[in-house]
Specification:
With 432 residues, this protein is mainly beta. Among the domains are: 116 residues, lipopolysaccharide transport protein A fold (Sandwich); 131 residues, lipopolysaccharide transport protein A fold, CATH 2.60.450. The longest helix is centred in the N-terminal third of the chain and has 39 residues. About 2% of the residues have low confidence.
């Protein structure tokens, strides 16, 4: 081995321990920096920053502390307790009487508040378990302009996911309604509220004939996601008095005062049933309108009239009241403040009559005035009763008033009447 090679080996043997020691020092500094970073990120560990070193390993009991939850520099919430107990391992933090918790959005504006008798914080999981009949108040929500109050047995607050979850029966209350749900999930970052298997009772104010009235509307659904700009509802069932509406899916745009329902739609009330696959509703103050499209079917149900005594005969009009009318068209536009509906496109109505007869009514357009109990048919209007008559007109006005069921043809009509010629009877004396 040459002299230069021996010198290089000695230098390598001398510098190797120095490099190892430097690596250990750098690793220790990195660990210390990581621990300090965790202290800055975790709001509860920041509380110990002001505790003397000789008390760091002791269990702490803090009276009336105020803690701030943070995500970096942004404040998530401020919590005020009567007392806070900290375990020596700092895994669990127990709080007594959460007097007030103020929740903030990304801009630092309050979006909610909470109160509870007990609170448990798990540091490794970064979760708050809020128990003791907690009350959560959500300031901004799509259900109304007043705060939404949530009451349940316990809440889980996931700080990492920024979500508050209730996974059991929960009561909701606001100024215009109340209800119960089986599960709630509030995403604090986006403001979206998910509601599972709920039932609501809503007080609705209506202006009718210059008189202010209020009514209750029962709402049930399988799942709902309430956002600031749009809400998604699945399995919707709405009962307003004696009217029931069913929809597979609905999107509600509250700021635009607009709703879109799709899937199998059904509307039922004592006099009429309607079906379709697409329903649009505009409910602004100056535009209360609904549009039902795609495979529209409508059934006008008969009035509940009593049959006449056996000694009396019943007129054909009275008999017709006992049979429903099934109608189809392309779309129905309904102005529900004026109670006027417009039917358009391929209108066909069929009514079953006594003795197996049918009555078919065809038209291009129709207008139904619920208040006036009047149906106006326009375009090519055809009234067809096989084996009896077929009439064509351009305008037909049908009165649906009780004891005043009439059909008026102001522009005249043309058609044919059918009859069966019977064999003439032979006189008794045999002469014809």
């Amino acid at each position: 081995m040459s002299v230069p090679e021996r010198v290089m080996i000695r230098r390598a043997r001398w510098t190797r321990p120095l490099l190892q020691f430097s690596f250990i020092i750098l690793t220790a500094l990195a660990l210390l920096w990581g621990v300090e970073l965790l202290r800055r990120q975790d709001p509860f560990l920041r509380t110990l920053a002001s505790v003397p070193p000789d008390l760091q390993n002791l269990e702490l009991y803090l009276e009336r502390p105020t803690l701030t939850l943070r995500d970096g520099e942004r404040a998530l919430a401020t919590l005020q307790f009567d007392a806070l107990e900290i375990e020596r391992n700092r895994v669990h933090w127990r709080a007594k009487n959460l007097r007030q918790a103020t929740i903030y959005d990304e801009r630092g504006n309050p979006i909610g508040a909470a109160r509870a008798r007990e609170l448990l914080y798990n540091y490794p999981a970064k979760r708050l378990h809020i128990a003791g009949e907690p009350t959560l108040t959500i300031r901004r929500h799509p259900l109304g302009d007043t705060p939404l109050t949530v009451q349940t047995a316990w809440l889980n607050w996931d700080i990492r996911k920024q979500q508050i979850v209730a996974e059991l029966t929960t009561r909701l209350r606001w100024a215009d309604g109340e209800g119960a749900i089986q599960q709630l999930r509030w995403d604090l970052a986006s403001g979206a509220i998910e509601l599972e298997r709920g039932a609501f009772r809503v007080n609705v104010a209506l202006l009718q004939d210059q008189a202010s009235t209020r009514r209750e509307v029962d709402i049930r659904w399988d799942s709902a996601i309430l956002r600031s700009d749009r809400s998604e509802v699945k399995g919707l069932r709405l009962k307003d008095g004696d009217t029931l509406a069913i929809a597979e899916r609905a999107d509600v745009y509250d700021r635009k005062r607009y709703a879109l329902a799709t899937g199998m739609l059904r509307l039922e009330d004592p006099r009429i049933d309607m079906e379709g696959t697409k329903l649009e509703i505009w409910y602004a103050e100056n535009q209360k309108r609904a549009l039902l499209q795609n495979g529209v079917r409508m059934r006008i149900k008969p009035r509940e009239t009593q049959p006449p005594p056996e000694s009396e005969t019943e007129s054909e009009v009275e008999q017709a009241k006992r049979y429903p009318v099934d109608a189809t068209c392309n779309e129905i536009e309904y102005f529900y403040r004026r109670k006027v509906a417009y039917l358009r496109g391929n209108i066909k109505a069929v009514q079953q009559l006594p003795e197996g007869r049918t009555r078919t009514l065809l038209a291009d357009e129709a207008e139904y005035d619920q208040k006036a109990e009047r149906l106006i048919l326009k375009g090519k209007v055809i009234l067809d009763e096989p084996d009896r008559l077929r009439v064509e007109a351009t305008l037909a006005i049908v009165s649906l008033k009780e004891n005043d069921e009439t059909v008026e043809l102001p522009n005249g009509a043309s058609g044919v009447f059918y009859y069966t010629e019977e064999e003439e009877a032979t006189p008794p004396n045999g002469n014809r």
